[in-house]
Amino acid sequence: MAEPARSPSKETRAHKSATEILESPDFKALVKKRWSVSMTLLVALFATYYGFILVIGLNKALVVQKVGEVTTLAIPLGIAVIVFAWLLTAFYVAWANKSYDPEVERLKGQIKP
């Protein structure tokens, strides 16, 4: 028995060309959100790195203070800068996995096959 002709489903009608997706408000909002998250994290990272360098250059007396028997304050501060960079990376990965990647997949699903 032959299958009856089906009308196009909503999902089929929702398919768009890649150009339509790139010009859509959803895609533009996604790009804007990614840039704002990326730039915020970049500013935080630069402030941390350059802040550390400025403290070393401008307040040497602070960073040469002993913390323990042989360690100066510069060592834990440097480690803190590295750990902070890792935390920023972990935050970005978590954000991308939770928010960005699902939205990308949703938009990719709208492209015509």
UniProtKB/TrEMBL annotation:
UniProt keywords (A-Z) are: Membrane, Transmembrane, Transmembrane helix
Membrane-spanning intervals of the chain: 35-58, 70-95
Source taxon at top rank: Bacteria
The UniProt entry, under InterPro entries, shows: DUF485 (IPR007436), Inner_membrane_assoc (IPR052959)
Q: What is this protein called?
A: Membrane protein
